[in-house]
Structure formats: C-alpha cells, structure tokens
Design brief:
alpha+beta, eight-stranded mixed beta sheet, six-stranded mixed beta sheet, 11 helices, globular
C-alpha cells in the first residue's frame, strides 16, 4: 500500500503548483522539502509574466498575486524594453513580485487542500518497480508512492538518481546575487554593463511608476555583480561579494549584514528526458539557463500545469500511462526554446562595440510592430504552441479568456477551468453535442460569443463552432458537430469512453 499517490521532491514554485494541480484532481499528493519552513532568503525570481498569470487565473487565484505585485506594461529581451500593452490578453503586463511572496501565496493555496509537507527532510535515494517508487529520507524513514516527481532544482538528486542525462553548455560567466545592508549610498541605482559583465544595485523595496522602477530611500539592497573569474564551486561568502564589488565599482559601499548570497552562471542545460518510468522531473530539475528575461520560474510553473492533470488521470486509472509521454513531447521543445533565447540574450548584453551594434539593431527591430508583437508573445509565454497536428490555428494554443454568454449567465472562459477539468465549448446550436457518457470527466458548455478571436503574434483567427479545451487551457480539438476527430481527441487526452 502506497503512503501517497504522488510524492513531489521540492516545495518551490514548481513543486507547489504541481501539488495544487494534483490536489484539485483529488490525488493524494505530498511534498518533501528540505527547508524547515516556507521562508526564502534572497531575491531569486522577481515577477510573473502574462501566461503564468493566466494560468493562475485559470485556477481562480490570480487575484492573490495581483493584490501584492506591481504591474509594468513592458517586457524585455537582451536589455531592450518594449511595450506590449496591446497584446490580446487580460494581463498585458509583467507583475513585479519577489519569489518569496510568490511561494508564500502558492503555499497558502496548497495548504487549503491539506497537502502534507515533510519539512526539514531530504530524499537520499529511491528505487522504482512496476507498481511504484520507494523513497528514502535522510531521517531513516521510507515513503512509497505510485509516482515520484523531482522539482528539486538544478542540482536535482532525483534527476541524477534516475540516470537522466543533463547535457548542455558550461559556464562562461559567474555572478553573485545578494541582499545586504550598505553603509554608503551608491551615487546611482540600476544596471551597469562593462567588459566583465552586467551588474545592478537597487533597494529591495521599490515601486513601479509609469513603467519605471522607483527605489525606496532606505532599507536593504539587492546586489548583482559579475565575478572576475569563473569556476568557483564553494558557497560564496561576504568576502567574495566585497571583492567583486570593489573590482566593478571601486568600493564595496561598506556592505554588511547579508541575508542571502548565492552564485549563478550562464550555464544552460536540459534533461535528455523528463521521465524515466515512474520518475518525472520538472522546473529547474529539467532545465537550467541564465536568468535573463525571468523565464525560469514561468517555465517551471507551466511544466507543472502541463504535467498535473495528465499525472492525475493516470493515477486514477482514467488514462493509460502513455499519456505521460506527452509531457516530455510538449514541454521539452518549450524548454529548449527558453534555453536558446536566454543564451542569445546573455550574448547580446556584452559591452564590446560589435555587440553594442548588434543590440542597437535588435532594438530597432523591436521598435517595429510585427517583431515587437512576436517577441512580446514569446517572452510572455503567450505564443506557446504544442504540436497537435494541422488544422485551425487554435489547435495546440492557449484558449483566449473570452467573455461568454451561457445559460448560467455571463462567464469568462478561464472561470470554467478552475476545477482543472476539460471543457467542451459549443458555439453552435445548443444541444448539438452529446457527451453524457463522459459528463463526469468533461464539462459541456453551450455558449455565445460575438467578438473577434485574436491570438498573440498571429492576430485574428476564424471563430470556431466548438473547441475542446484541456485542463491546462490549451485547445485539443476544433470543429463543429459534424467534424471528425472529437471522439479520438476525447480518447487521446481524457481516456477511453467509460463502459455503460
């Protein structure tokens, strides 16, 4: 008998989001987290992009984040900022919000499901068989689950123990990031670039006014500084931070009382497979890359939303185990593109004359409507497209959050996804579809919508007669009551038709 259906290793944003997704589907899920509490020292990720906010909106919790974050209607690539307020989404902005707050809010949501969290513990190893996975903990205990998911970061023990290769590029640049007190106030805040790399100083507390960051006049300082040498593996110290600051700024500003110091590089690696039998990986365990553009947290959360409903259906016996193969098939190309974009962005930040010229050229291109629209959709995650075959442009893309008219009154599309169940939206004659035999799995909604259908970067598309929307908000089928393929799509994604 398993202790849990699924054990997640790692209680960061990816692990928490996955736990919430599984709990919504009534799956017995637990988290093993090495930290004794949800407290997170340091800055790490600094916000949420449009598609991630949409994903949270699909679960009815976006307002919790919006209430604490600060909106900026800009997105950036390689240090070039551009406006995307006209992007067709309810959330055409970046939300400034520190990772420690993102985690706290997600943890509060997960706690509402009473998901157990084994805190202050680490996984030391595991063994899988045909029926499940035995997970060893560092206190001598053992847990058993049907499936194990590693959301345990770039040095993932789960990935290593599963024998999953992690190919990629070695670091060429090393950076320190910290939060500490300064005895002296720098003459200016913000970003500095030089031949060594990119550096930045700013108060931890700030406001966004008219799209610009306005720092507080007191309080701790966030520090980003590029080190002179690459390859150090020891935990960074205050002395390392002082040395790096002096090399770049000529002074350490009397830095003291750090609350966090960490090191990151421009290494880019991606797991060869996101699954080995009953063991899966997500988030930084599956892909690491430079933090430029703030893509890491977004990609991890969206990994979790892609995997969650699929894993739930397999655990509950609704779908065959082969459904889990679509997790790698869909998310691995997305992760590869993020690696490509962040590596390109890092190169374009270099300060030599040739790179400056190239960056200026990119800035000119991003001043044009079509390139700006495409890059905005890419950096915000709104252009993600899963290859589900040819046909209507909606197929494999996110469903827009339309204002519908239904028999139960006005409804937003995303409000229909809050239970993480698939939805068949019928815009043709009411009653044109009969899915009575699947009514326990799929929600059928007869609806009307008179406005335009518009997709980010692609623009207007033909209004469909009906769409089948997966729990993650992506369209699995487009057609009308006479179109072929719906029966196959239902079976592919949501299991064979239940026997009478």
């Amino acid at each position: 008998m398993a202790d849990h259906d699924v054990i997640i290793v790692g209680g960061g944003p990816t692990g928490l989001m996955l736990a919430g997704e599984l709990a919504l589907a009534d799956v017995d899920v637990a988290i093993v987290e090495r930290r004794a509490s949800q407290e997170l020292a340091g800055s790490r990720a600094g916000g949420l992009h449009s598609r991630t906010i949409e994903v949270l909106d699909q679960r009815g919790i976006a307002d919790r984040f919006l209430a604490e974050g600060q909106k900026a209607q800009t997105v950036g690539f390689a240090g070039v900022q551009f406006d995307f307020s006209g992007c067709p989404t309810r959330h055409p902005y970046t939300l400034g919000l520190r990772q420690k707050h993102i985690e706290r809010i997600l943890a509060g949501w997960v706690d509402e499901f009473k998901v157990p969290i084994y805190r202050g513990l680490q996984v030391t190893g595991f063994a899988q068989d045909d029926a499940g996975v035995d997970v060893e903990l560092n206190d001598g205990r053992s847990l058993r689950a049907q499936y194990l998911v590693g959301c345990d970061g770039g040095r993932s023990l789960v990935r290593k123990a599963a024998g999953i290769a992690f190919p990629g590029s070695n670091p060429t640049v090393s950076n320190l990031i910290a939060e500490a007190e300064f005895a002296e106030t720098p003459p200016e805040w913000g970003i500095r670039r030089d031949a060594v790399g990119t550096h930045a100083l700013g108060r931890v507390d700030y406001e966004i006014r008219d799209g610009k960051i306005v720092y507080a006049d007191h309080g701790p300082v966030s520090v980003l500084v590029t080190e002179q040498q690459v390859g150090q593996t020891a935990e960074p110290t205050l002395s390392d931070l002082r040395t790096a600051l002096i090399a770049v700024y000529g002074t350490d500003y009397g830095i003291h009382s750090p609350t966090s110091i960490s090191r990151f590089t421009d290494a880019a690696r991606q797991a060869a497979s996101y699954r080995n039998g009953r063991v899966l990986i997500a988030g930084d365990a599956a892909h690491v890359h430079p933090p430029d553009g703030g893509q890491g947290l977004q990609t991890g959360v969206q990994d979790a939303v892609n995997l969650g409903w699929k894993l739930a259906q397999v655990v509950k016996g609704m779908s065959p185990e082969s459904l889990l193969d679509t997790y790698h098939a869909e998310r691995h190309p997305i992760g590869a593109r993020v690696l490509r974009n962040t590596m390109a962005s890092i190169v374009l930040r270099r300060d030599d004359k040739q790179t400056k010229a190239l960056r200026d050229t990119i800035a000119e291109l991003l001043g044009m409507d079509e390139p700006r629209s495409r890059f905005a959709a890419m950096m915000s995650g709104l252009d993600i497209h899963y290859d589900l075959g040819g046909g209507h442009p909606l197929l494999g893309r996110r469903i827009p959050d339309l204002d519908l008219v239904t028999e139960n009154g006005p409804r937003r599309v995303y409000s229909l996804l809050q239970a993480a169940r698939p939805v068949l939206l019928n815009f043709s004659e009411p009653g044109a579809f009969d899915i009575t035999s699947r009514s326990d799995r799929i929600k059928l909604v007869d609806a009307r919508y008179a406005g335009p259908w518009e997709l980010p970067a692609l623009g207007p598309v033909t209004a469909p007669a009906a769409v089948l929307v997966r729990p993650d908000g992506y369209v699995a089928w487009v057609g009308d009551p006479t179109s072929p393929g719906l029966t196959d799509a239902l079976a592919t994604w949501f299991g064979p038709q239940p026997r009478a």
